[in-house]
Amino acid sequence: MILILDFGSQYSELIARRIRELKVYSEVFHYETPIEEIKKFNPKGIILSGGPSSVYEENAPKIDPEIFNLNIPVLGICYGMQLMMMNTGGQVQEMGQDKGEYGRAKLYIDSNQDILSGLEDSFISWMSHGDSVVKIPDGFKVIAHTDNTPIAAISNQEKNLYGLQFHPEVIHTEKGMEILANFTYKICNCSAEWTTAKFIDKSIEEIKNEAKDERILLALSGGVDSSTLAFLLHKAIGDKLVCIFIDQGFMRHKEAERLIITFKDQFKIPVIYVDAKKRFIDKLKGITDPEEKRKRIGEEFIRVFEEESKKLGDINFLAQGTLYSDVIESAGSKHSSKKQGYHSNPAAKIKSHHNVGGLPENMKFKLIEPFRILFKDEVRKVAQELAVPERISRRHPFPGPGLAIRIIGEVNEERLHIVRMADAIVREEIAEAGLYNSIWQIFAVLLAEIKSVGVMGDKRTYAHPIVIRAVKSEDGMTADWAKIPYEVLEKISNRIINEVSNVNRVVYDITSKPPGTIEWE
Q: Does 78 participate in catalysis according to the annotation?
């Protein structure tokens, strides 16, 4: 295991992903995690992430200097490198507005050894810093520089301490994976053993140990995560799996019907269908705040499950397809249990996912969430290993609160119909154009509180705009807007305006993540 201490960098989770791509397990921990707890995890290596602070600021994130004396290899990245220097006798200072370094920078190797072994003499790196190391402690040597940064990489072989001023985890650094591989394999002596098959075997064992001979309720939504979890649980506990599909009225066009047919008829996995559309919509009456929507949906979701479980007898366990990205973005509290799979970071809370932040405190179920340590693409690999059909495993992500958070404003039946039909058109045309599998996610958003002027049939209209959101991503943590051909967008726009009532304008969202999130709410 490689343990990552997070100092608030937008790239911290990306570091974990890159290490996992090397088939070595990695987890993100809060930078304040005590030394004694770090020792319990027995990591083969520690990575200190970047961060937005300056190490010399009064309230900047600090670290116990003892971490550099654990006889465990430590790699500091950007802020992490500067922190290492501050704690071992080096010096860091602000370089001034004209001396900062942001974006691509050519890196020159001074010593092809240790973390930079086997690399060519120069390559492009990705920099993002206004402070720089100006003096290194005894025992360290400079092993790389750029035109603007004399100390861009350092090493101390004796103490197994290494630092990079640039970010090897981002794709813009040309030899980033080779550098991380050097640290992971050559310096930390890790083996490439983090595989999908091993994850499945371990999860099945843990599920059996946790639930014993009891039944497990699964909150089945029909999405990639919950569907793959259904296959995993069915393999682990067979007919002790009880799948319940709650139709809260926020599903996509004809999705509920397709789900029931697929699981019951094709896979012979029984599903209990619960029609709860009215009570969910009633819960959202008058509510426009997106966080409040999520919390109310999450609360009602659990209450329905509790009611249904009573009809089935005593069931204590609830399984959910919560992902690592859900937990990270919810960032609601600090966890210290390894089983939780996440150790909260100092970054700002982005959203309350109903699988995470929206759960009521007085819930009676014990949660089983095997995927909370996985990213979305890792779940897709699990699905492939479990022989989940591609039409499910390649399905675009869909938020737990469904279309309720794709209506900007109050949710009602008319608005749900508008966004549902617009969304159906979007997905039909993208599939027809052969673009579905090349896009991470595409959907329609209804700006329900906004109306714009239009002309239809020589008459003035005053109707709603629909926003089309399409992104490309690997895991949903970062994303870029998809460059869909104009003729496809034109067809989507024409169909929505002609076929969906009370819509007279279609716009296309070209915002990346960050700064925007993928969903609008």
A: yes
Q: β-pairing, 480-481 with 452-456? A: unpaired
Who contacts 410 (Cβ-Cβ below 8 Å, separation ≥6)? 284, 285, 286, 287, 288, 448
User: Are 196 and 382 within 8 A, CB to CB?
Assistant: yes
The first and second tokens of residue 327, run together, are 């937990």
Nearest to 66 by CA among 44, 46, 41: 46
User: What are the tens digits of pLDDT across the range 60-91?
Assistant: 899 999 999 999 999 999 999 999 999 999 88
Q: Are 443 and 255 in contact (CB under 8 A)?
A: no
Mean pLDDT, residues 371-397: 89
Q: State the CB neighbour count (10 A cutoff) for residue 275.
A: 12
Contacts of 261 (CB under 8 A, 6+ apart): none
> Residue 303 burial by CB count (10 A; 0-12/13-18/19+): exposed, middle or buried?
middle
Nearest CA to 5 among 85, 88, 62?
Answer: 62
- Both tokens of residue 116? 């930079």
Is 343 a catalytic site residue? no
CA atoms within 13 A on the CB side of 446: 32
What is the full DSSP assignment across 274-300?
EE-HHHHHHHTTT---HHHHHHHHHHH
% residues pLDDT > 70 (the chain): 92
- In the predicted model, what is the mean pLDDT of residues 179-194? 96
Catalytic residue among 13, 78, 101, 353: 78
Which CA distances in Å does 120 have to 106, 150, 179?
Answer: 12, 18, 12
> What pairs with residue 430 in β-bridges?
none
* Lowest-pLDDT choice from 184-188, 344-348, 493-497: 344-348
Q: What angle do CA 429, 431, 432 make, to 5 degrees?
A: 60
The CA-to-CA distance between both ends of the chain, in Å, stands at: 35
The vertex-218 CA angle with 212 and 224, nearest 5°, equals 125
Alpha-carbon distance 346 to 59, whole Å?
Answer: 13
Q: What is the DSSP letter of 220?
A: -
What gap in Å lies between CA 314 and CA 333, rounded to an integer?
30
* Residue given tokens 């602000």 in the structure block: 94
The catalytically annotated residue of 13, 30, 101, 167 is 167
What is this structure's pTM?
A: 0.70
Q: What is the band of 314 on the pLDDT scale with cuts at 50, 70, 90?
A: confident
Amino acid at site 13:
E
Q: Give the chain's domains with CATH numbers.
A: 2-187 (3.40.50.880), 196-393 (3.40.50.620), 407-509 (3.30.300.10)
Which of these is catalytic: 13, 101, 169, 519?
A: 169
